[in-house]
Design goal:
Length: about 240
């Protein structure tokens, strides 16, 4: 059995920091691809959308402090973060749900370059079984346990309707999968040792709608105040 590297949280790295590491890694990989050898904390923070103090604190959890006047070595920092996230080895992924979302995930070419191999795409619909998607033949959900064992699946992805998600999750867990990415709009019940990440696009859209509404209120507020409350004349805004 392959020796498992300690997870970031097992090393005392805060969950908020763990959530930002992939963002730093993406920015660093772009710098690396452009041939940039070093980067300052200010520039990297700007590319990642955080302040530089937060970035420096996050990276200090990895034991990386940069060099004063030089910054961070891009290549080494890519390696450090990749190692911390477990991306220095390949992870086998199985997707259940061969609808539009599942097919889009299987077709996404970015997974392969980031250490993830889509090993299987499964569905319960007989009409979809046997379809070719991204070089894979869609398998039947009944083969899930065998696929997990044969392909050494580490991560299960659920891209099914809500009503099927818990049953699929239970089968993943029963087969020994302890990391699940859930796209179904439902909260999954799992044992404490199983990690679930939920991606709900409708919630993200609702959060954006909230911010849009707040911005709209902000634009309208001063106009209403100016119209209703301010005295006439040039000095009205004073």
């Amino acid at each position: 059995m392959t020796r498992r590297e300690p997870r970031p949280r097992e090393r005392g790295i805060p969950e908020a920091t763990v959530a930002r590491l992939p963002v730093y890694l993406r920015a660093l990989q772009a710098l690396s691809e452009s041939g940039t050898p070093t980067v300052s904390s200010e520039e990297l923070a700007s590319r990642a959308g955080v302040n530089s103090a937060k970035l420096r604190k996050d990276l200090s959890h990895l034991g990386s402090y940069g060099t004063r006047g030089v910054g961070y070595d891009v290549g080494y920092l890519v390696y450090q973060i990749s190692r911390e996230l477990g991306l220095t080895q390949d992870w086998s992924v199985a997707i259940v749900g061969a609808g539009n979302l599942g097919r889009a995930l299987a077709n996404y070419g970015g997974f392969g370059t980031r250490g993830f191999r889509i090993a299987a795409l499964l569905d319960a619909e007989p009409a979809l079984v046997g379809d070719r998607v991204a070089g894979l033949s869609v398998g039947h959900i009944d083969t899930l346990e065998g696929v997990v064992e044969a392909e050494n699946v580490s991560i299960g992805v659920i891209a099914t309707p809500a009503q099927a998600a818990q049953a699929v999750c239970d089968r993943f867990v029963g087969a020994g999968v302890t990391s699940v990415l859930n796209f179904a709009p439902v909260v999954l019940n799992v044992p404490p040792e199983v990690d679930v990440r939920k991606v709900d696009l409708s919630i993200e859209l609702q959060i954006l709608a909230f911010h849009e509404q707040r911005k709209a209120d902000g634009r309208e507020g001063p106009e209403r105040i100016g119209t209703l409350d301010a005295p006439p004349g040039p000095a009205g805004g004073q």
